[in-house]
Amino acid sequence: MFQEIDKKKNIIDNKRPLPNHTLKSLRENFLLTWTYNSNAIEGNTLTLSETKVVLEDGITIGGKTLKEHLEVINHKEAILYVEDLVKEDDILTEWQVKSIHRLILKGIDDSYAGTYRKEKVIISGAEHIPPEPFLLKEEMETLLDWYNNESKDLHAVERAAKLHTDFVKIHPFIDGNGRTARLLLNLELMKAGYPLAIIRNEDRAKYYSALDKAHITGDYREFIELVIQALNRSLDLYLKVID
């Protein structure tokens, strides 16, 4: 499953260091498309071009809510924080996860930002029901312990995909779980030297279906394949630019 992406990654690695302006343009492109798609999956109605205006020019869009603008600004800040974590290259901690979530909900719902939910929830359209609130801390500790230890034997992409999937299964926060999960996915991919895996809004139905299948059956293959497809798009863009 991973031979193609690893072959492309090796080609790119062998061409490093890449020119500064090339890296800058790739980063700006990924920051925009990641923010747009991750927010759109959750129902944000800002278009790609509108997201670009908010991100790069700080201009508000008429007819759009303050919440939608904050979702764009917050996601950018969360990406910057994730990039700092990549540079530190430390183990993933509960504090880091909560800090990412705190940035996602900053100014939108500060009372829940970075705080595990205290209520039962269901995920709309999903068969899986997340655990009771009193189990959340234990579940998260178990997930992070697995990730920082036993999962080391897995391919880096499989590890990151399973982290995302199992985090969503726990659904530790009232809101912002999807955005946080996708940030965690890419945090761990970047630590391993891969580009971003951007799940497209147009693949939302497949994305949710693959997650629910993994949660109910324990079969992660569809979700891992979705991540690989996203990685291939990013790798192909790198190859196109540097070739």
Overview of the structural elements:
- This protein has 243 residues and is mainly α.
- The chain has one domain: Orthogonal Bundle (Fic-like fold), CATH 1.10.3290.10.
- It has helices spanning 3-14, 20-41, 48-57, 66-88, 94-105, 136-148, 156-170, 177-191, 204-217, 221-242.
- Helix 7 packs across helix 10 (221-242).
- The protein is globular and about 50 Å long.
- The model has no long low-confidence stretch (mean pLDDT 96).
Secondary structure elements and their pairing?
Blueprint: H1 3-14, H2 20-41, H3 48-57, H4 66-88, H5 94-105, H6 136-148, H7 156-170, H8 177-191, H9 204-217, H10 221-242
In short:
Helix content is 65%, strand content 0%. It has helices spanning 3-14, 20-41, 48-57, 66-88, 94-105, 136-148, 156-170, 177-191, 204-217, 221-242. 34% of the residues are buried.
Order of SSEs, N→C?
HHHHHHHHHH
Q: How many domains, in number, for the residues?
A: 1
Shape: globular
Query: What percentage of residues falls in helices of 4 or more residues?
Result: 55-70%
| CATH H level, superfamily name | Fido-like domain
N- to C-terminal distance: 25 Å
Please describe the biggest sheet, giving its number of strands, its sense, and whether it closes into a barrel.
none
Q: What's the CATH first level?
A: Mainly Alpha
* Rg over C-alpha atoms, rounded to the nearest angstrom: 18 Å
